[in-house]
Design a protein that fits this description.
It is built from 2 helices and no strands. With 142 residues, the chain is mainly alpha-helical. The chain has a domain of 93 residues.
Amino acid sequence: MMGRALPLALSAATRDVSGIYRRAKRNAVLTALAGLCFVSAYVAGMVAAGAYLAPIYGPAGAALTIAAAMVLAGVMVLAVLSFLKHRDRKRNIRRQAARRLTAAAALSLLPQITKSRSLLLVAALGGAALLAAQGREGAEES
């Protein structure tokens, strides 16, 4: 039975992988094309802003005004990014504190669990699973 099912499973897996690859490639090309359109629109907008401001402030004044606006926008984006990083750091600290509390609670129950051999085996397997899960989470956060 297993001998017949294995080729079918491998065939299905191969089709899924090739489909995923095709979709990822298509999405990458279309995203790059959309990005090119957005960059072109940005450049056209900057040229239009410069052409509009040049008669009012002169070419140098128009360029400096646009540059100042872009610097201000960049500083605002960096401020938002800094706020989001700070919030994520606080969340991670709270998560680590909760994990420590859970581990301390589990350790306080250890003497009662060690009286039963089957419970000790279950606790050891649970602890190994917890360590494996924490190891994967640490690798994903880095």
